[in-house]
Design a protein that fits this description.
The chain is an alpha/beta fold. The protein folds into three domains: about 270 residues, Quinone Oxidoreductase, Chain A, domain 1; about 140 residues, Quinone Oxidoreductase, Chain A, domain 1 (Alpha-Beta Complex); about 150 residues, 3-Layer(aba) Sandwich (Rossmann fold). Helices cover about 30% and strands about 25% of the residues. Strands 3, 4, 5, 8, 9, 24, 25 and 26 form an eight-stranded mixed β-sheet that branches. Strands 12-11-10-13-14-16 form a six-stranded parallel β-sheet, with helices on both faces. The protein has a six-stranded parallel β-sheet with strand order 19-18-17-20-21-23, sandwiched between helices. Helix 5 crosses helix 17 and helix 12 packs parallel to helix 13.
């Protein structure tokens, strides 16, 4: 039962301070976060008639926050904003409580209401991410205005039950990103009213496939069809297949200039490649994909032909690569119709011991119809040890074989990949790549089995390219990626956390008050902890504390930790009871 102190706190009715501590970003680098390693004291904000004043109760630190601090005004979500004159505040994994309601919001909102926020805010067609363009949660109090409350997607605040822990709620946001990776809305057909490039490198394959492709094109009504083929008869046949409503362009050679001109610089929504093009043309085609574009490789003997793929675009622009050994577009689109982990399958999570990687491992182990084998590799010995200690009991309980592997503990790289080969036993059904290293992504993909999924979850920069064996696609390997989350993913993960089917607090590795945020962000940057860092902004005089040090520093809090020394609602309540002013 909560004490009177906590009851007043949870109600949101307590007295407000005069000042408001905030970690403002004034430029690139941790030295430009706050002043002299301390937060800035700002005046207490006053909400307008259409606004809310909310108290920030917990904020999870994310590597995305570190990217913002590293890049400063160069970060793409800031759009060149002069942070020296107009600083922002990081932090998008936030739980909050309403403490003041503007007069026009009364009735719709009440003091004491608890919320989390969907960070990808859109207002009047403009993307204004919370924690970037809109100052975020690494502060004590924030005004929520029309951008958040009346955005293009409606209200971006999601209500939280009174009984839900603050950390538990805040960490629904990173968990939503994990959940989205397995629930992406994938196209299983050509894009309606889209642009199509048909690249023909074998006339016989074309004639086998043309009837099906033509029927599919007639169904999806593309606005434009371009055909690249050396065979003049092929170009004429495609050119004569459609009426005036479809623009058809034909060309014998697919130079970069020709492809760019044909797609009007926007890229093609669908690229269908028939036959066996040389590697340079495969690369050229892959570069011609539009955002959300799909690359289908139909037939051809391309095993061992390496094409260049921008894996940053796979992650951020959702470009897709798939194929089939025959010339059937339907087979290519349908071979790997799933997006979640294969039931009773073999999964390899690459870079598994970081905070987000451990969430993927936990999800794989807790999934009702999950894989029977989870290989979790990472080069960080400390993190891997932490992951093994935390998840081996869960794996045993769920009867899943969990195999943690550290490449640096093998005799050499070849010995590590020999072990991966043995464990894959013909190829993994799912490879989830967390390591943002091009060479690791490139090597890992080679261990994908037939009809498998490769999910590039790592946030590699656009322009990061790898050499991919095109033969993977004709084996039915589908290459996907995802970034961020949707509001429905956040709603789902919050519901799972509140129903007890997902333990978001499993991920917590350290906690602290608002003064510990600077040290916490440095730790995220250095990869110090295997799990998440949660900051409680209303707690002022507590530095960062790893959970392992709680028995010594805060024994009463440590006594309330969950199984295996995990953070819990009870530990959080004790922490706030002791540390709130």
């Amino acid at each position: 039962m909560a004490s009177e102190k906590l009851e007043v706190y949870e109600s949101g009715t307590g007295d407000l301070p005069q000042g408001n501590l905030a970690w403002q970003v004034f430029g690139a680098g941790l030295e430009n976060l706050g002043k002299d390693g301390r937060p800035i004291e700002l005046p207490m904000p006053d909400p307008g008639d259409d606004d809310l004043l909310v108290r920030v109760d917990a904020v999870g630190l994310c590597f995305s926050d570190v990217k913002l601090i590293r890049l400063g005004s160069e970060h793409p979500r800031i759009r060149g904003r002069d942070l020296r004159r107009d600083p922002t505040i990081p932090g998008h994994e936030v739980s909050m409580t309403v403490v003041k309601v503007g007069k026009n919001r009364k009735g719709a909102f009440n003091v004491g209401d608890k919320f989390i926020i969907q960070a990808d805010v859109y207002y009047k067609g403009e993307g204004l991410a919370f924690g970037y363009a809109i100052p975020g949660g690494m502060t004590q109090y924030i005004v929520m205005d029309k951008r958040v409350l009346d955005g293009d997607g409606g209200c971006y605040l999601l209500p939280v039950k009174k009984s839900t822990g603050y950390s538990e709620a805040a960490l629904s946001e990173p968990w939503a990103c994990v959940e989205m990776a397995y629930s992406i809305d994938e196209r299983t057909a050509l894009k309606p009213n889209g642009s199509v490039l048909l690249a023909v490198h074998d006339s016989e394959t074309f004639h086998k496939a043309w009837r099906e492709i033509r029927a599919t094109l007639e169904t999806t009504n593309p606005r434009k069809v371009c055909v690249a083929a050396a065979d003049d008869a092929v170009r004429k046949e495609v050119g004569g297949a459609f009426g005036k409503e479809v623009v058809v362009e034909s060309f014998p050679e697919a130079s970069e200039d020709v492809l760019a001109g044909a797609s009007e610089g926007a890229g093609f929504d669908d690229i269908l490649v028939l036959g066996t093009p040389p590697a340079d043309l495969l690369t050229r085609y892959s570069r011609s994909l539009a955002r959300g574009g799909m690359f289908n490789l139909l037939g051809g003997d391309v095993s061992g032909v390496n094409m260049e793929v921008d894996v940053g675009r796979v992650h951020y622009h959702r470009t897709r690569f798939l194929g089939t050994p025959d010339a059937s577009l339907a087979h290519s689109l349908g071979r790997c119709g799933r997006i979640d982990l294969k039931p009773e399958g073999k999964t390899w999570i690459v870079g598994a011991a970081g905070p987000m990687g451990q969430m993927h491992v936990q999800r794989a182990l807790q999934k009702t119809d999950g894989p029977r084998l989870v290989v979790a590799s990472d080069v960080d010995k400390h993190r891997l040890t932490h992951m093994r200690r935390r998840f081996e009991p869960l794996a045993a309980e769920r009867n899943v074989q969990l195999v943690p592997l550290n490449p640096t503990e093998f005799e050499d790289e070849a010995a590590f990949y020999d072990e991966i080969e043995n464990l894959s036993d013909g190829g993994f059904d799912d490879i989830v790549i967390m390591a943002p290293v091009a060479s690791v992504i490139e090597r890992s993909m080679g261990y994908a089995g037939a009809d498998s999924l490769v999910n590039i979850f790592a946030g590699v920069n656009i322009g990061t390219t790898i050499e991919m064996d095109a033969g993977l696609l004709t084996r039915g390997v589908k290459v996907v990626g995802s970034s961020g989350s949707r509001i429905e993913d956040l709603e789902k993960t919050l519901s799972m956390a509140e129903s007890g089917t997902l333990s978001t607090d499993y991920a917590v590795a350290a906690v602290g008050g608002i003064y510990g945020a600077h040290e916490g962000l440095a730790a995220v940057n250095d990869g110090t902890f295997a799990g998440k860092i949660v900051i409680y902004p209303q707690v002022e005089n507590v530095d960062l504390i790893p959970l392992e040090e709680l028995p010594e520093k805060l024994p009463d809090v440590a006594a309330k930790l969950g199984p295996g020394g995990t953070w819990s609602r009870e530990a959080e309540q004790e922490f706030l009871e002791e540390m709130l002013p």
